[in-house]
From TrEMBL:
Gene3D superfamilies (alphabetical): Topoisomerase I, domain 3, Topoisomerase I, domain 4
Name of the protein in its database record: Topo IA-type catalytic domain-containing protein
Domain Topo IA-type catalytic: 1-145
Stored InterPro entries: Topo_IA, Topo_IA_AS, Topo_IA_cen, Topo_IA_cen_sub2, Topo_IA_cen_sub3, Topo_IA_core_domain
Pfam families: Topoisom_bac
A biological-process GO annotation: DNA topological change
MF GO annotations: DNA binding; DNA topoisomerase type I (single strand cut, ATP-independent) activity
Upper taxonomic lineage: Eukaryota, Viridiplantae, Streptophyta, Embryophyta, Tracheophyta
Length: 145
């Protein structure tokens, strides 16, 4: 990984910023994982890069649309809880049950915070999808629907 400090020319909106990048080519040769064979060679490349000036000769902007991850099903909830939080499957299911049972509201009614735990169906009824789309448009605008 190459850390880069990027300085714009005078009169631009932003003076400088930095970002990380990966060195994929050096001296017109494509680098792979084993291209640099010694510490001395790596230091030599680092010195050449540090003493060089670079110029951006072009840029390209793309719009990307990334879909959200699928909703949890029982198995993926347990896997993520185990991998990220080190929870056992039984502890995860106890917590999920408490979320399903919900919280007590001021009007003495309980409100569940998640759907039934062992319902692994991913289908959303057309009417529900329509209602959700309307709510998204109302709150966030047509661009997000």
């Amino acid at each position: 990984t190459v850390e880069v400090d990027f300085n714009k020319k005078e009169g631009s909106f932003v003076d400088s910023f930095s970002f990380s990048s990966y060195l994929s080519h050096f001296d017109s040769k494509k680098l792979n994982q084993l291209s640099i064979s010694s510490h001395a060679e790596a230091k030599d490349i680092e010195q050449k890069i540090n003493s060089s000036n670079f110029e951006v000769i072009g840029s390209k902007r793309n719009k990307m649309r990334k879909n959200p991850p699928a909703p949890y099903i029982t198995s993926t909830l347990q896997q993520d809880a185990a991998n990220k939080l080190h929870f056992s499957a039984s502890y995860t299911m106890k917590l999920a049950q408490k979320l399903y049972e919900g919280v007590q509201l001021s009007n003495d009614k309980a409100a569940g915070l998640i759907t039934y735990i062992r319902t692994d169906g991913l289908h959303i009824a057309n009417e529900a999808a329509k209602d959700i789309r309307s709510l998204v448009i109302e709150r966030y605008g047509q661009d997000f629907a």
